OmpR/PhoB-type domain-containing protein (Kribbella antibiotica), 421 residues
Amino acid sequence: MEFRLLGPVQLWSGGDQVTLKRRQERLLLAVLLLEPGKAVAAQRLIELLWPDEMPTNPRRALQVYISRLRTVLEVELTSGPEGYAIQAPPGSSDIEQYRTLVAQARSHDDLDQRSKLLTDALHLWRGPALADVTTEDVRRRLCGGLEEEHWAAEELLLSTELALGHHQELLPRLADLTAAQPTRETFAAASMLALYRSGRQADALAVYTSLVRRLDEELGVEPGAEVRDLQVAILRQDSALDVTVPSAVPRELPADVGLLIGRDAVLDELAEVLTGTPRAGVPAVVCLYGAAGTGKSAVAVRLGHRLADAFPDGQLFARLQDVNGQGLTPQTILGQLLRSLGVEGSEIPESLEERSALLRSRLADKTTLLVFDDAIDASQLRSLLPAGGAVIVTSRRPILGLEDATHRELVAWPDPASTGG
């Protein structure tokens, strides 16, 4: 059974809505569900159900409503000296679902995932909580804290979307929010910033003017320092207001293979090499070499997936030969790597030395794994190596001249599941 309180109060069972015709029955259900498992005193329920005019025998009327609820509920509604309580399973109300999603969002560092969780949470709101069951005064008494949670989640979503650079997409939502909460400074500030970043400086300043007027007329106060500072920055066209969109973390490893027979020992050994104490200015490099069909690529990919969490700044993958088996030039490979790191094509330099230097700069102070498949020789690889992180190389032959690398030869196994490169 599912209980929906974030909007008109509804009761659902097996995909069908259960009709509760009387407003007091829906309000009684909602009050008990606001604190599931906790007893609510009969006198408090009476005061909430009949705030203006009570029936002749309010306790008897309350008992009648309790009895009616029990006939339709698939959960236990208990009574005792302390009052009445609903023993609903965890997560059966949209309030609990909403709070779970918001808590998950707050714990996420990934902005895209945080935005998705918050969007899913806010979609559960179909209107003001308990919208159709009581007076506005009683609704505010019951749901004041819940409404504040709602606006706080909206604020978190706005800040997340602005950090992602979605300022233009936010404008319709911001118009609705500022209309609903015209004196909430965080909404006004988000609207000002989104408009400014969309090239609408005058409109951004108009939002500030409107906020000043509403705060003065309705509350007799001035905007806080944060909004005032934002207005000054917009007037000055401060470059600090420009959006800086975080680069997506590259995760380019091919799909992992299924079964690898007889490779556990080499995987364990090389995992230790790649995650050991790093030397300053030197990447950890392992080279897997062997004839075609020995499973070099499969082992390299398995090793990369196994160590992915140890390299949170990304895993880059590049094949160093074309479809005809010809080796790619270092310039070509560097261009691919730089684009994977978010460098625009127009910003990629022409020369090998400049591309190599830019790659090292982009990977400086980052913990990144690079996997190079089907390398030709050391001259193809040297300009691709960063000054830190880890590198996995596969090749038909040992890579002579690749300093400080750990080389391991793979030989063919009879089981075809171990082959792949």
